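Exercise 7. Given the encoded structure of a 183-residue chain, write a plausible sequence.
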């Protein structure tokens, strides 16, 4: 959904928006770093305040994402919920002419006279989505030799039982417990 800046009243705008997964995936196609799919529409509650050339957008976002586990490669779905606060300005050219303060680094430039809620939704999800998603915390992954799923049980290749010859000397290494004797 596109919102024209001149349509935002002085008191602000409160919206409940549902973004279709297909629209979000169209944005995602041009980006190779987004390693997830949208399993459901994205629901957002937005509060938008405009003060001349500046716009503040805050809200809550909910959806379900589909990932491929980074350890065992199984597909899984995970609920996604988050809150965000994004600041936009049309004064970005002035900001380039001076040294930025830490509070000004998180300012987004408004290139047009409208906000695109689809782009806001995708950006917030891409920022918060896990980089190395796992189907569960105890995922054992795949055997590095034969590729068997270790979550289903031990593999038959026995590669995990073999000791790397470079570390064979450490196999029988024992640590002595030296306790200090006091008087």
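Solution.
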């Amino acid at each position: 959904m596109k919102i024209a800046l001149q349509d935002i009243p002085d008191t602000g705008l409160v919206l409940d928006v549902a973004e279709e997964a297909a629209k979000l995936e169209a944005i995602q196609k041009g980006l190779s770093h987004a390693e997830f799919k949208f399993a459901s529409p994205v629901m957002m509650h937005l509060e938008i305040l405009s003060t001349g050339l500046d716009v503040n957008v805050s809200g809550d976002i909910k959806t379900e994402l589909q990932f491929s586990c980074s350890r065992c490669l199984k597909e899984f779905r995970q609920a996604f919920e988050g809150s965000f606060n994004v600041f936009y300005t049309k004064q970005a050219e002035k900001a380039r002419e001076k040294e930025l303060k830490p509070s000004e680094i998180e300012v987004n430039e408004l290139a047009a006279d409208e906000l695109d809620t689809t782009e806001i939704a995708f950006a917030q999800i891409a920022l918060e989505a896990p980089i190395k998603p796992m189907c569960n915390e105890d995922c054992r992954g795949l055997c590095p030799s034969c590729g068997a799923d270790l979550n289903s049980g031990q593999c038959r290749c026995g590669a995990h039982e073999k000791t790397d010859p470079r570390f064979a000397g450490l196999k029988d290494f024992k640590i002595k417990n030296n306790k200090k004797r006091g008087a």
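Remark. The helical segments are 21-28, 92-96, 117-128. Students should compare their own answers with the one above.
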